Amino acid sequence: MEIPKAVMMVFPLFWFLFSTISSTLPTQANTFLPCNETEKHARLRFKRALYDPGNRLSSWSAHEDCCGWNGVRCHNITGRDIELQLGNPCFSKISCHKFALGGKVSPALLQLEFLNYLDLSYNDFGGAPIPSFLGSIRSLTYLDLLEASFGGLIPPQFGNLSNLHYLILGGSYYSSNSEKEPPPLYVENLHWISHLSSLEYLLMFQVDLHKEVHWVELISMLSSLSNLALNNCQLDNMSPSLKYVNFTSLTFLSVVWNPFIHEIPNWLFNLNTSLLNLNLLGNQMTGQIPECLGQLKRLESLSLDYNSFDGPIPSSLGNLSSLGFLYLYGNRLNGTLPSSLWLLPNLVCLDIGNNSLVGIVSEAHLKKLSKLKTLDMSSTSLIFKVKPNWVPPFQLEYLDTSSCHLGPDFPTWIRTQTSLLDLDISNSGIIGLAPTWLWKWASRINGPIDLSNNQISGNLSGVWLNNTSMFLNSNCFTGLLPKLSSNVIVLNMANNSFSGPISQFLCQKLNSTSQLEALDLSNNDLSGQLPQCWNSWSSLTHLNLGNNNLWGKIPDSLSSVLSLEALHLQNNSFFGSIPSSLRDFTSLGLLDLSGNQLLGNIPNWIGELTSLNVLCLRSNKFTGEIPLQICRLSSLIVLDLADNDLSGFIPKCLNNFSLMATIKTPDGLFTALQYSRYEIYVESLTLMTVGRELEYKGILKYVRMIDLSSNNLSGSIPTELSQLAGLRFLNLSRNHLRGLMLEKIGRMTSLLSLDLSMNHLSGEISQSLADLTFLNHLNLSYNQLWGRIPLSTQLQSFDAFSYIGNAQLCGAPLTKNCTSDDESQNMDAIEENEGFEMPWFYISSMGVGFIVGFWGVCGALIFKKNWRYAYFQFVYYMRDWVYVVVATRLNWFCNNLRSL
After folding, report:
1. Mean pLDDT on 148-174
2. The pLDDT of residue 91
3. How far is it, in rounded angstroms, from Cα 820 to Cα 296?
4. Which residue has the higher pLDDT, 843 or 51?
5. What is the DSSP letter of 405?
6. Which of 414, 469, 427, 473 is CA-nearest to residue 446?
7. CA 757 – CA 734 distance, rounded (Å)
8. H or E element that contains 591
């Protein structure tokens, strides 16, 4: 939840700024006096240079009075143009790009000689440079180019705008819709800014300022400056040794997401007469939070979250009697909470989560915080200890005590919090039966509720759920699945003990059209066949029914859920073939059908699902060849076809998996692996990697895996596989592969695990295998490899089991020594000169030896009945002995592992 928390905290500050700005500007209405003809024609030339897909400027007509045009404001006495308010009024990235102005900013604006207000924010000028002539409109007092997709050098001519009070620059709001990311805005220096003597508001976002190392000294020359925001501007120096600055009027300072990597600068503590809001979010700042912060006695909001501060929370923060918002989330703070923290009477938000804080929080600490609305103590070692009948003095809207100690009893005091919008008490050590009032009380909360990863029990057969997001996973709930309101959008009830037929839940009657988008019922005891009533769940995008007792054929009616992005049906008892209706899932990014009894060929149309990132079909009964069409899945990062009955060759075209061929992990290509529209729900996947089963959740998008093991594949390993430089796990074991190892396997530099065991591979181990410095699991056993094992720190670190079953291999870590470095070279020379020719006496000796050996052993077993019985009795004894030894050793190892 880190990113949503940061966004939630930063953007209200921006809105505060803009609302403050708008409240200070005149709001006189147009009186529609006749406008100046020269300015009218100038505006029309300005319009002609613009691209207006949403017809926002349709009122700009030569036949209409220009003071009545949309976005135009004229002076109510002179009729001269004083304002152009052309910022995009729509603020949704999904639908508002069509309302964004683009094209070119015409120099016709220079003829609007009384223009003092120009707003082009949230438009899309495609990376074009900011016109330098704007610096010649000396009448400007307000200039807003925020998120307008301008790029390149900020014109130093802006220094001519001596009347400017508001300057807002930076950002590319619609870059995700563009074919090419527009270049960022940047400056060579900020010397020009010192000439803006009237400037009160300076806001820059995503502007590259790293070349200006003296930005603090230059900007502090602006004595009228009251609001300063330089966010994500690549600043790396905040002049920490500077002791004094001239920010005498500064009330708002936001310098976030810049890599400062140093302590809080000394000059900040001199702003004790003016500063109201200080935001240093996400700057990688180090050291302890200084006690001197307590000198900023007018401070109302302090944001130091997502840094690397250590040590205790300073007790001087208790001196900030006006403080309403305190954000310390995501640092390395330790120790107990200072008692002065609980004496802040105006505290509205206390966010101290994700730190190493310890101690007890009791009702005595909280009794004076009557204005508290937000409390976050998550991911700490704090113990929340209050009496069962405690009634808090506050009404919370947001409570997060996840991963701290809230239990073992269910916190009954939350029943008094009737204004809650968001509740997270997951992984809080709560044990026992859920109170009977919980579900009715919870139904009144519109926001998400997270009770996951506790040991809460109870039968939910008659319960009705109404929350937009409900996380009940990893508890001890039983009974039938609860009934749902159509308001539910995310429901996670995985890892419980729910039972009964799945059809009873899926075919329930809803009060209106369902809005459910993410449903996880995995790891329960649900039974029965999948029903036909999928029309009721057409909004589903993520569905996980894995690890239950479901059976039957996968119904064609599942295709009614065309918006599916992730489908898990693994580890059930589904049979039959993969239904052809699944080919309609064009948005499907994850398909896991592993661990069932599906049969037949893998369909050719699987190559039409070009959005697939993950395809898991392991442990079924698929036959036939791997279809070549599978190579069309260029976005695939996991291909798991292991443990089937597939035959034929490995397709040479697997190098078409472009995301496996690159080491980078591009953003925006894995939407199916994480649902985050209303509340984060992260897809998880259990994969057999590094020789054992592991669950991949938050890091799933970084996995690159091909597993074709335990099939009947033949032929050689395609050399094209060596082009997959980003592949991390490759398992081709237990097949009938022949030929040499990949000669250029060293190009697969990202490999962590390589298993080629139990095939018929021959020849020497490729010398380039020594180049795989990240390899931590290797199995080449039971092939026909020969020669010296290549020398490298990596390859000799594996034990002998990685190489056994190759009789002609020698060298460490095997006990078989190679006679000399030259021996293998001499053997190569003999083979090159003589090929496979042998003297006749070697051949005749081998023939005689084979006949004598065969009939000497096998003949005796055939004709001597008592010898035959004794021999097989010995074989069975050895089999049982090996089984007992392995079982006892494994049991000993598991017991030791549990005791750790």
Report:
1. 92
2. 60
3. 77
4. 51
5. B
6. 469
7. 6
8. strand 590-592
With a cut of 80, say whether residue 14 has pLDDT above it: no
| Tokens matching residue 839 | 């003297």
Pair of tokens at residue 604:
């050719």
Amino acid at residue number 8: M
Handedness of CA 355, 359, 363, 364 (dihedral sign): negative
Rounded to an integer, the average pLDDT of 210-221 is 94
Residues 6+ apart with CB under 8 A from 224: 197, 198, 199, 200, 249
pLDDT of 737-788, one tens digit each? 999 998 899 999 999 999 999 999 999 999 999 999 899 999 999 999 999 9
Instruction: Give the helix/strand (H/E) hosting 457.
Output: strand 455-459
Q: Strands, E, within 829-889: which ranges? A: none
CA distance linking residue 547 with residue 498, whole number of Å = 12
Q: How far apart are CA 745 and CA 768, in angstroms?
A: 6
Across the range 190-212, mean pLDDT stands at 95
Residue 268 reports pLDDT greater than 80? yes
Selection from 603, 558, 604 nearest residue 585 by Cα: 558
Q: How far is CA 52 from CA 58, 103, 123, 174, in A?
A: 9, 8, 10, 15
First to last CA, the chain: 30
By three-state DSSP, how is residue 788 classified? strand
Rounded to 5°, angle at Cα 350 from 345 and 355 = 140
pLDDT in the model for residue 23: 40
Q: Is 770 helix (H, G, I), strand (E, B) or coil?
A: helix
For 893, the token pair is 């190892």
Q: Is the pLDDT of residue 867 over 70?
A: no
CA distance linking residue 362 with residue 356, whole number of Å? 18
Sheet holding 152-153, edge to edge: 152-153, 185-186, 207-208
Across all residues in the chain, what is the average pLDDT? Answer: 86
Tokens (6 digits) for 3: 């990113």
The CA distance from 602 to 766, in Å, is 33
Q: What is the rounded CA–CA span in Å between residue 538 and residue 561?
A: 5
- Give Dmax over CA atoms of the chain in angstroms: 124
Tokens describing residue 821: 């470095």
pTM above 0.85, yes or no: no
CA distance 541 to 567: 8
Do 255 and 283 touch, CB atoms closer than 8 A? Answer: yes
Measured CA to CA in angstroms, residue 680 lies from 219, 491, 701 at distances of 40, 11, 15
- DSSP structure string for 520-553: E--SSEEEEE--S-GGGGTT--EEE--SSEEEEE
How far is 711 from 139, CA to CA, in rounded Å?
77
Give CA angle at 548 (543, 554), nearest 5°.
Answer: 60
Q: What is the three-class DSSP state of 502?
A: helix
Question: Residue 612: its pLDDT value, please?
Answer: 94
* Residue at token pair 């591009």: 666
Q: For strand 638-640 and strand 645-649, is the pairing parallel, antiparallel, or unpaired?
A: unpaired
What phi, psi does 501 have (nearest 5°)?
Answer: -70, 135
Contact between 218 and 196 (Cβ < 8 Å): no
User: Which pLDDT does position 681 carry in this prediction?
Assistant: 80
Residue 707 scores a pLDDT above 80: yes
Residue 374 to residue 358: CA distance in whole angstroms: 20
**469-494 residue pLDDT tens:** 999 999 999 999 999 999 999 999 99
Q: How confident is residue 94, by pLDDT bands cut at 50, 70 and 90? A: low
Question: Stretch 539-567: mean pLDDT, rounded?
Answer: 94
Contact of 265 with 238, CB cutoff 8 Å:
yes
Per-residue confidence band for 315, with pLDDT thresholds at 50, 70 and 90: very high
Provide the β-strand partners of residue 360. Answer: 383
* 3-class DSSP assignment, residue 83: strand
How far is it, in rounded angstroms, from Cα 127 to Cα 148?
Answer: 9
Query: In the predicted model, what is the mean pLDDT of residues 124-141?
Result: 94
User: What does the block give as tokens for 481?
Assistant: 């699945």
